[in-house]
Predict the 3D structure of the following.
Amino acid sequence: MSNSSQLTSTLGIVLGAVLVALGVGAYVATDFASVTALIPAFFGVVIALLGVAGRQLDRDRIAVYGIGVLALLGILGSARVVPDAIALVADDAVDSVVATVSQSAMILICLVLLVAVVRDGLDLRRSP
């Protein structure tokens, strides 16, 4: 396992846990009314499990690329919130502040993961 893959797997574990906390927090903030608020938590569990697998198994490349695919899906799935996030920053009204903040945070977290996976892939290409 390369040092970069180990770092990406560790980052997957940590940010996966953050996504779980984000999803559970959003679910609680909506008074348990919106099960869709748990979507970041579902992504977080799978990303964290891939991170653990990447650190423990001989299949670290598959785990890292799995994290990358999930990060990309998380970004694309949450992209529709961008206009609401801009409105919220501009102090305009939005339908759901909790959903806007949660999805915006998911985009940022997934962007960090995607950058780590791309960097890991570039490091792999440079190594002999």
